[in-house]
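Milestone 3.1: sequence recovery, worked example.
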């Protein structure tokens, strides 16, 4: 068996170290950049939901305001269309405001 010279030992040790380093890097890759699309969509929908929820309690007061102060006739026109829809569906007259609020939403 042939004896290795000190320079051969050093070279083979360096090569082994590089091989081990490459194997470790493959196993422990730095994490890829995460895709933030899901996070952005989630927060966008959450903000959208909260924004619409804030206005919903104001619909009945808006409707009563325009019922008394409408001068253009647009409210009366829309209310007559909602009344026709209510009659087709068969809902009681108390639901006109609810249907109108749903129409606005």
């Amino acid at each position: 068996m042939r004896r290795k010279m000190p320079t051969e030992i050093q070279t083979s040790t360096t090569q082994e170290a590089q091989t081990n380093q490459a194997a470790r890097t493959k196993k422990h890759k730095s994490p890829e950049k995460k895709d933030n699309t899901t996070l952005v969509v989630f927060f966008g929908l959450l903000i959208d939901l909260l924004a619409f929820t804030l206005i919903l309690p104001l619909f009945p007061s808006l409707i009563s305001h325009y019922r008394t102060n409408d001068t253009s006739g647009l409210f009366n026109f829309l209310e007559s269309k909602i009344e026709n829809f209510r009659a087709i569906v068969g809902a009681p007259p108390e639901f006109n405001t609810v249907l109108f609020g749903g129409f606005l939403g």
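Residues 48 and 65 are 26 Å apart (CA to CA). The radius of gyration is 36 Å.
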